[in-house]
Amino acid sequence: MTEQLVHSADTAVVRTAPRPSMSTYGRLDLRRQLRDRFGMFFIVGLPTFMFLVFGLGSDDAVGSGNVAMYVMISMAAYGAVTATTGVAGSAATEQVMGWGRQLGLTPMRPLAFIATKAAIAMVVALMPVTLIFTIGALTGARGSWSDWVLAGALVWLGSALFAIYGLAMSLVFRGPNATGIASGMIVILAFLGNVFTPMSGLLLDIGRLTPLYGYAALARFPLTEGYLPTGGRDPLWLPVANVLAWTILFSLLALWGVRRSRARV
Amino acid sequence: MNTPAIHATGLRKEFRQADGTPVVAVDDVDLTIQPGEIVAFLGPNGAGKTTTVDMLLGLTRPDAGSVEVYGVAPDAAVRAGRVSAVMQTGGLLNDFTVEETVRAIAALHGRPDRVDVVLERAGLTELAGRRVEACSGGEQQRLKFALALVPDPDLVILDEPTTGMDVGARQEFWQAMRADAALGRTIVFATHYLAEADEFAGRTVLMNHGRIVHDAPTTDVRAAYGGRTVTFRPPAEAVGPEGIDPAWLARAQQALAPLGVADLEVSAASLEAAFLALTAEVPVDTILEGATR
């Protein structure tokens, strides 16, 4: 009797369809990201430090607020962009370096992986934005309430563009250093993009064409209405066009990178 | 009515090299494996083992031919958790701990209940809190084995699981493996260590140049390399810096002749040598004939 029971239990293996728990995976992956002190220094520490150095207590008027507000938005943007670039870049690298094969042996669909990584990138990007905005609010950054809300939203959501950038770069350069290259280039692009120090003349003309310019200018637009610290004014269409153009360019580059990496296998 | 664990027919896969010339990695491979079998995939580097394994797992799409795993497409079998694998390359995140790695994969399988079981099965319970990058190669390989056990699969495929391990680690790995096989799992493993096939697999499939050159019970493969070898230890005075004194060898041959020993050969007798013979350009049938005679 007992034997029969055991036997039937053995053969009648009923396999319930496994349901992947993306939230558990996402939480573990997010914790791993936050534990990376080196990475988090560049995402949260450095931009905060630069805000403290360049922005703290600068009360000269800019648009509807002051310089502290202007620098606060810029540095928050820099931090957010570093976050999305890093997370998206390392996601691509993980795929290429073999973790992707491990994930390929689970019921998880690739789209769920991308969605989870995007969510992680946005959560991590929220950290420098929240911290720097909080410090700014406590130390005398001034602007109308709509400046705060719009700038915060534009900085946070706009940083998604650089997730595409990070992905594209990692697929183009490949290998374990790809994310480092992508993040390093963000520093240069931040200079050219008028994020760190106000530029003028030829450098500004070149800078207007670089990817961080449109994003940062758009985030500051509620505050500055396009007026530049060095004189002159950007019409709204300019940063908008810049962001759209780079979104398309990065997306095409990422698509090409995905195709190329598939072709190898 | 008995659905085979693996049923592959006419598998073919071609790759393009960096300079554009095509290379046939797998060429017309037919393979059927029944549930409960333990099968070794034996072959030198570049024989097409990994590519075959990739196709069995649905990670690579064959150019021609078809694969069914438990009667369904490989990726469907993977999603259902019926088949899993220990991959040869990469596959772990350095900054996860051992336990986090298992929990992450268990989450994706929807089997968080399996975490403790597979850690124990792979002998990793003590290392649960260690970061992956701090683990030795053998420990990382055992971790991958633990990940493969998460969905409680009917079939586990291992692609050169012990490459780069020292003897001790290799032994530990196979101990964990053997304990698990006793529970009735179907196991297919690729290796280039003949001894592993010899010790562990009931059936050996020999691959070379993308083709299956020999597929038989492991005991037959052993027979194919000559049954038993008798080894003599020559007296110390017969061994010089140049090897064994030829005069002594001639005398030994003379002494053995009445026993029917026709030839005396001095070699570093090894399974590897036999394996090389089997995978050499010589047709295997000829070698087999010679062996069974």
Molecular structure report:
The complex is a heterodimer of chains A (265) and B (293). Chain A is mainly alpha-helical. Chain A has 12 helices and 2 strands. Chain A has helices at residues 2-11, 22-35, 37-54, 67-96, 99-104, 110-138, 145-158, 160-173, 178-192, 201-207, 211-224, 237-264; strands at residues 61-62, 65-66. In chain A, helix 4 (67-96) packs antiparallel against helix 6, helix 4 packs antiparallel against helix 9 (178-192) and helix 7 packs antiparallel against helix 11 (211-224). Chain A is globular. The termini of chain A are far apart. Chain B is an alpha/beta fold. Chain B contains 11 helices and 11 strands.
Secondary structure layout plus pairing:
The complex is a heterodimer of chains A (265) and B (293).
Chain A: H1 2-11, H2 22-35, H3 37-54, E1 61-62, E2 65-66, H4 67-96, H5 99-104, H6 110-138, H7 145-158, H8 160-173, H9 178-192, H10 201-207, H11 211-224, H12 237-264
Antiparallel strand pairs in A: 1-2
Helix pairs in contact in A: 2-6, 3-4, 3-6, 4-6, 4-7, 4-8, 4-9, 4-11, 6-7, 7-11, 8-9, 8-12, 11-12
Chain B: E1 6-16, E2 22-33, E3 38-42, H1 49-56, E4 64-69, H2 74-79, E5 83-86, H3 98-109, H4 115-121, H5 137-149, E6 155-159, H6 167-181, E7 186-191, H7 194-200, E8 203-208, E9 211-217, H8 218-224, E10 239-240, E11 243-244, H9 246-256, H10 271-279, H11 284-292
Helix pairs in contact in B: 5-6
